[in-house]
């Protein structure tokens, strides 16, 4: 269940894209574009940021306060592969 507001997720998308995350997968021709929702795009990019920054609590909760959560379930789907 989504608890973060779309505005916060949009800020997270902007932060991730401005800080080294490859945002091409969420573009219209990308593997993670569909579903074309803010939460889906933010989820992919926040995970990418988390992975690129050592999978630390700081890289999850400090940079994405009140909008991130850790999971042990792989959220990959179809051709959208979370790394």
Write the layout of secondary structure elements.
Blueprint: H1 6-18, H2 38-52, H3 57-62
Keywords: Glycoprotein, GPI-anchor, Lipoprotein, Membrane, Signal
Organism: Arabidopsis lyrata subsp. lyrata
Main location: membrane
Short description, anyone?
The chain has 83 residues and is an all-alpha fold. The protein has one domain (1-82).
Account of the protein in words:
This is X8 domain-containing protein. Pfam families: X8. Keywords: Glycoprotein, GPI-anchor, Lipoprotein, Membrane, Signal. It is a lipid-anchor; GPI-anchor. This protein has three helices and no strands. The mean pLDDT is 91. The protein is globular and about 30 Å long. The longest helix has 15 residues, at 38-52. The chain has 83 residues and is an all-alpha fold.
Spatial separation of the terminal alpha carbons: 22 Å
| Overall form | globular
Major β-sheet profile: none
**What is the string of SSEs from the N terminus onward?**
HHH
- The total strand number stands at 0
Low-confidence region ranges: none
Beta percentage is under 5%
With helices defined by DSSP (H or I, 4 residues minimum), what is the helix count?
Answer: 3
Q: What count of domains describes the coordinates? A: 1
Average pLDDT for all residues: 91
Structural class: mainly alpha
Radius of gyration: 12 Å
User: How much helix, percentage-wise, in residues?
Assistant: 40-55%
């Amino acid at each position: 269940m989504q608890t973060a507001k779309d505005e916060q997720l949009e800020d997270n998308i902007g932060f991730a894209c401005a800080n080294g995350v490859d945002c091409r997968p969420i573009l219209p021709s990308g593997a993670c574009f569909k579903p074309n929702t803010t939460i889906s795009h933010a989820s992919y990019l926040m995970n990418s940021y988390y992975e690129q920054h050592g999978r630390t609590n700081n890289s999850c909760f400090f940079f994405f306060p009140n909008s991130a959560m850790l999971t042990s379930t792989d959220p990959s789907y179809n051709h959208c592969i979370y790394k």
